[in-house]
Amino acid sequence: MAGRLARLGLRRDVDFVLHLPLRYEDETRITVVSDALPGVAAQFEVVVVSCDIVFRPRRQLVVRARDDSGMLTLRFLNFYPSQQKALQPGARLRVFGELRDSFPGGEIIHPRFHVVANSDADSAALPTSLTPVYPTTAGLGQATLRRLIDRALARGDLTDTLPADALAKLGLPAFSDAVRLLHAPPPACVLEQLESRHHPAWRRVQFDELLAQQLSLRRAYTARRARGAPQLVANGTLTQQLLAALPFRLTGAQQRAWHEIACDLAQPHPMQRLLQGDVGSGKTIVAALAMLHAVEAGYQAALMAPTEILAEQHYRKLSVWLAPLGIEVAWLTGSLKRRDKAVVLEKVGAGDTVLMIGTHALIEEGVMFHRLGLAIVDEQHRFGVRQRLALKEKGRFAHQLTMSATPIPRTLAMSYYADLDVSVLDELPPGRTPVSTRLVSVTRRDEIIARVRDACRAGGQAYWVCPLITDSETLQLQTAEDTFAQLLADLPDLRIGLVHGRLKGEEKAAVMAAFAANQIHVLVATTVIEVGVDVPNASLMIIEHAERFGLSQLHQLRGRVGRGAAQSVCILLYAQPLGQTARARLKVIFQSTDGFEIAREDLRLRGPGEFIGARQSGLPLLRYADLEDAALVEQARQLADTLLTDAPAIAQAHLDRWLGGREEFLKA
């Protein structure tokens, strides 16, 4: 039993108190059979007329029962001898279930029932509150959970952790009143208000959960600022040389973000800043300026990217920018030959190389930095928590900059990223052409192939993105290898390339280099090209089975085109029939090119766990609070700051109740 309860996170009395119902059943009233509505769960009191085992179409127990208004059929497809014995003619039953009108008089499949003895007043009495239905796990029944939760409510500490003046100001009920009502609502409660979680009692629980999250993250933020870190004071010589050599000027947003980062790096506590911006907003140059700042201050800097293609893109771009300044950039990935890797590690360990770009290889055990002052993690949500922390720990007191091309909605930034400082690149560099998006059925593939031929003959290049590499038995999708073979046959006068995650690093690099040099007309690829690929001449993107991709992924892929002067088009090929969620995703991506608006919709459609990569990180999701409720998030944030300053004991009591030792998950 303890093991089953632990799977639900139920160990302390307060864990049971905070294990709140998914929904409710109304067993406080009896419905007569003639008034029952099909599809609506109700409770009936009936007397058994007959009880028979039938064998067609399969073995089952069929019970006929009635009240004064009509007949009801109860059907049990799986049953025990004890149930058959209890359901003998003449037995008076209290039955709960959803009526189906497929049988004369209506029937209920597998109803919940108990025998009511006329002489037993307790068994005949109706409950005085709605019956809660809790989240559970295999081997743990509702009756057991209800009993354990009732026991916890009776003996648990339900003392309020919010000051009375805060409760009054926020208009929230007392904690004890809220949880008691949610576990046992009186029949007068509006069921829709309870189940949609808009009842004031739910509001209190949602606020408390958000407050615990804010307290934990703000406390982590304060604790980090109390730790020492090297002050990276720079004279600006290298950064000014780079800015003077660039063929473009920084946008206002880039200048603002760079100023915020430079100020952080000069502080005596570790920077923990998130640089977020839409596809193509120019995060790489801001990262390059931050790395140069560290070098000017006498420290090393490292940038870690989730894929070899993205890491190599950063390496090539930074090398072009920094080589004229006399700065060597090291390159480290898992595919590097052992001898080459040893040379790189020796130079970085001795401090001879000051900048390092790479993949997860940067956090391997043998990688030692001489004096790491700045750690940058690109596409941070694609790394697990331990991976993100491991790079930072290579330099014990290093400053950390994380970057994301997936814009983060304001409520998410206020909640999950409350321990970070955030810089936003909210304008695109001049010269970026808007990308036109088209939705096209897969039945018109021949027209699309003709369009690709015309675009490439006119001097352009195209991407063709597929969701799988080879055939899958479970998903009959157009695969990258199939598409590659088909395009070779249909476009014999064009050069076609293929790149996917299973290719060796040098093979991938060779194909990408050929595409960048316009030696390949059409690049067939999986989502390895989602981020970091920059080929200005490519102005056409076809995404196969677009209905299978997430919104942010579609937006990232679309961002691979529109990087030059030519009008760019992204064609989303979809297969019918489209599900409701897929239809909603494609509608959003068709109607909007604003990454922040798309991110808001993505959050709404997918939920915060998928959106920020929490599934792979161990981050506990909010169970009850709604991140779209920006006002409640803001109120929790304000009270958290007040409590941490003026009432740290109350803040600790609140954290103990809600997190109970699991606070480390949030800090990561």
From TrEMBL:
PROSITE patterns: HELICASE_ATP_BIND_1, HELICASE_CTER. The keyword Amino-acid biosynthesis does not apply. This is ATP-dependent DNA helicase RecG. Gene3D superfamilies: P-loop containing nucleotide triphosphate hydrolases. It comes from Rugosibacter aromaticivorans. Residues 458-604 form the Helicase C-terminal domain. SUPFAM superfamilies: Nucleic acid-binding proteins, P-loop containing nucleoside triphosphate hydrolases. Pfam families: DEAD, Helicase_C, RecG_dom3_C. Its EC number is 5.6.2.4. CDD domains: DEXHc_RecG (cd17992), RecG_wedge_OBF (cd04488). Keywords: ATP-binding, DNA damage, DNA recombination, DNA repair, DNA-binding, Helicase, Hydrolase, Isomerase, Nucleotide-binding. Belongs to the helicase family. RecG subfamily. It is an enzyme of class 5 (isomerase). GO terms for molecular function: 3'-5' DNA helicase activity; ATP binding; DNA binding; hydrolase activity. It catalyses: Couples ATP hydrolysis with the unwinding of duplex DNA by translocating in the 3'-5' direction; ATP + H2O = ADP + phosphate + H(+). Residues 264-425 form the Helicase ATP-binding domain. The keyword ATP-binding applies. It comes from the Bacteria. SMART domains: DEXDc, HELICc. One of its GO terms (biological process) is DNA repair. Plays a critical role in recombination and DNA repair. Helps process Holliday junction intermediates to mature products by catalyzing branch migration. Has replication fork regression activity, unwinds stalled or blocked replication forks to make a HJ that can be resolved. Has a DNA unwinding activity characteristic of a DNA helicase with 3'-5' polarity.
